[in-house]
Amino acid sequence: MSLAELEVEVEAGQAQAFEDQLFALGAVSVEIFDAGDEPLFEPPPGTHPLWSRLRLKAIFSDGLRAQIAAAALPAQSRTAAKAAVSTIAEQDWVRAGLVGLTRIHCGGNLWIVPSWEDLPAAKDGVFVHLDPGLAFGTGTHPTTAMCLAALATTPPKGQQVLDYGCGSGILAIAALQLGAARALAVDIDPQALQATRTNGERNGISAQRLETTVPEAGTPASSFDLVLANILAAPLVALAPTLARSARTGARLLLAGLLDWQAESVEAAYRNDFDIGISAQQDGWILLEGRRR
Asked: Residue 234 needs a FRET pair 20 to 30 A away by CA distance; which of 46, 115, 170, 256 works?
């Protein structure tokens, strides 16, 4: 059965209510776009403005659900434009999702190479073989890219590595390919742990060098030379005692998954135990790097 798309134009103040109703009416996703050509200049700190008029695009699993939602929406507001419904042509979504995904040079000798790409002709190249999957982390997102670049710039040769919130395992695997002795990958999601194990096997890494576990199992105290966490700002703040306890004196810390306006609060959570600061920025995302005192 073909998917259907519902598009409706609303005032900025109505966006949240419309989004909630679209999900209540069966939408599987909702995206928000500028309805005109209204530039948003740099906002004051702590503010998150939207355009004054927005287009909401909602995807439904079938046309009937979309038509029912379209009929229900105008009653919510007199200013809502008439909702338009269109059919999304069927296609091979897996193949379509691979379009434009190619090998990535992370910096130094490090490359991420999907299975459908040939290895680059790179002298002394270090390659991580990784395809998109259910778990976050393919090297394309700025947070992952900055972590990979930091690893490539200063390879963790012979080090013990902790990858907390491992997702696909890309950071732990990259560290091992760059010469780390062993990595422990931690995640709350069983699919992420399975993805990490599978990706490790694809890269010829043994289970003895790449171990996986859940947070509840705990991590050995003062055991790691390199601590990686590419998650989100709030979990990073909450994890500060855990990551500090796991790091040896002099251990390197790399934290990502936070936006520029979140950097100060995350830094503050780690300052008692680490010399820490911003080491990279990309598209509004921040990489924090520190050393354990």
From this structure: 170
Contact yes or no for 27/110 (Cβ under 8 A): no
Q: For residue 209, what is the domain's CATH number?
A: 3.40.50.150
Range of the domain at 83: 3-90
Q: Do 145 and 273 fall into the same domain?
A: yes
* Residue 234 vs residue 36, higher pLDDT: 234
List all residues 6 or more positions away from 71 whose beta carbon is below 8 Å from its beta carbon. Answer: none
pTM metric for this prediction: 0.69
Contacting residues for 264 by C-beta, under 8 A, at least 6 apart = none
For residues 167 and 68, membership in a common domain is answered with no
Kindly state whether residues 146 and 280 are assigned to the same domain.
yes
The SS3 assignment for 115 reads coil
Distance CA 266, CA 262 (A): 7
76: DSSP letter: G
Q: How far is CA 159 from CA 111, 177, 237, 267, in A?
A: 20, 12, 25, 24
User: What pLDDT, on the 0 to 100 scale, is given for residue 263?
Assistant: 95
User: If DSSP codes are grouped into helix, strand and coil, which group holds residue 151?
Assistant: helix
Spatial distance between the Cα atoms of 247 and 252, rounded to a whole number of angstroms: 8
Task: Tell me which H or E stretch contains 248.
Answer: strand 247-259
Contact present, 139 and 145 (Cβ < 8 Å)? yes
Burial class (CB in 10 A: 0-12, 13-18, 19+), 44: exposed
The token pair at 223 is 């055991």
144 and 262 housed in the same domain: yes
What per-residue confidence (pLDDT) applies to 110? 96
